[in-house]
Amino acid sequence: MCCFFTALVLLGPRAAILIWWFIQPVRWSAAFDSFIIPFLGLLFLPWTTLIYVVVQPGGVEGFDIFWIGLGVAVDVVQWVGGAWGNRTQIQSTYYERWPRA
Predict the structure, then answer these.
(1) Helix axes 36-44, 13-23, angle to 10 degrees
(2) Cβ atoms within 10 Å, residue 72
(3) pLDDT at 19 > cutoff 90
(4) So what's the pLDDT on residue 85?
(5) What whole-number distance in Å separates Cα of residue 98 and Cα of residue 100?
(6) Is 2 exposed, middle or buried (0-12, 13-18, 19+ CB in 10 A)?
(7) CA nearest 59: which of 30, 22, 23?
(8) Helical pair 87-97 and 64-85, crossing angle rounded to 10 deg
(9) For residues 72 and 76, what is the distance between their CA atoms, to the nearest angstrom?
């Protein structure tokens, strides 16, 4: 578990997913039936995937839904924040490609 938290802090959620997946594959296979769902989670919703693996083995019920919702919120904020931070680059590229008449 120490390696997982170190990877999470230093490298981010995607690296933590990969390290945890290699260290405890039984936990991941208990949480997911197939390979495709955690792989898509790795690509698009890493925080939600991590939190789901943490809360799922006991069953998702009660306050666990709050934690999963928090993971979804963090993932959405990361996606929106990236687009918001690059908004000037997107606009300048658009206007350079199609100048106004």
Answers:
(1) 150
(2) 15
(3) no
(4) 65
(5) 7
(6) exposed
(7) 30
(8) 40
(9) 6
d(CA 5, CA 7): 5
Give me the half-sphere count of Cα atoms (radius 13 Å) on the Cβ side of residue 92. 4
Q: Tokens at residue 95, please?
A: 């206007």
**One-letter amino acid identity for 55?**
V
Task: Give me the pLDDT at residue 5, please.
Answer: 67
pLDDT at residue 100 above 90?
no
**């959405």: which residue's tokens?**
76
One-letter amino acid at 69 equals G
Domain ranges of the chain: 2-97
Tokens of 58: 């006991």
